[in-house]
Amino acid sequence: MKKKLEDYWEDVVTCGHCRACTVMNWHVMEEWVPSCPAGEYWDWEAFYCVGRIEMARAVMEDELENSELLQEIVYSCTTCGACAATCLIFKGMDTVGVIEALREEMVKREWMPPRHIQLVKDTESLHNPYAEKHESRVEWAPKDVIDSGAKTAYFVGCTSSYRQKDIAKTTADILKKIGIEYTILKDEWCCGSPLLRTGNTELGKKLAKHNIELMKENGIEEIVFSCAGCYRTFRTDYQEMFDEELGFKVYHIVEYLYKLMKDGKLEFKNPINMKVTYHDPCHIGRHIKKNGLIKGIFKEPRKILEAIPGIELIEMPRNKENAWCCGAGGGVKATFRDFAVETANDRIKEAVETEADALVSTCPFCARNLMDAIEEYNHNIEFYDLVELVNKAL
Ligand code: SF4
Ligand code: SF4
Fold this sequence. Notes:
The chain is an alpha/beta fold.
């Protein structure tokens, strides 16, 4: 079951204020490398994880009142989980769980940033946070796969349905090329990630319920996702919220393609002569845990890239569980755009330093923010979603 703020009381009051959560894992990095985008941007203790943990205690003890500053501190966290990854070494607090529970408490007290109030209204009435018409969700999709009755569903998600449509179209192309019988369900709703990450748990649960019922009604046995956030929401949040067998398997597209590759059902024919570096989306990286340990999808995207003839993969210094967040998650892109794009700019600079021709990732939300930084800061590097390279290579 998803924990409430008061369930974290013991964790919160035993935080040693050691500040390990402000840096990446030093055993791996071999030096002190900053990990918290919000803390680095605002450059004030309150904006690091340790500050938000203290806010959680103060809210529980009724020491704080609503203020614009409190909202800014609590809602500027991208929920990237870099802090949780290092706290794991010392104490093992689920710091992102605490921050999300604090947001849930603030929602209950009506202490939400105004931008989030609109986002919640749009998602409730239109089933997407972009204020787009629900009927136009599948406009981009091949007609023959909409509600086709297949047992494999491609859950497209709001960002690819309405903004990064190329990722949706390319994923559909790949599934067709490799002969997967799949469907896209017309009545798919937002997975709920923007709501759950910002403390709007009740509405998030309503969306989750709808999507689970929809999958059951259509006899779906497995779901493929091209969005890291949707995947994380189904895999972890839906499971936590309902505490029951969901009745279907979930795969991020890189897991799905890697599985086919291992079974000898996916081969790349066309070479792509390009040096690339790979950005790990937080939602399929640090957010994926097993028995309390991080078990992210790190190997699969790298193996796929390495299997494409002509591709040379160069790692950025901060990678896998120590990856720098793109800056968009946790409701940040909608509320603190400058901070989001500057955080992406830090990532792009790191990618440029590898001398790669292109930065590759596998999440439409990361894609949007990273491409915004490339454009706005005039960087000389291309961006591809991994599915775009796979499609070219097939
Ligand atoms: S690493 Fe954990 S215990 Fe240390 S300050 Fe951060 S949250 Fe507290
Ligand atoms: S989740 Fe990321 S942005 Fe939020 S406090 Fe932790 S490191 Fe900072």
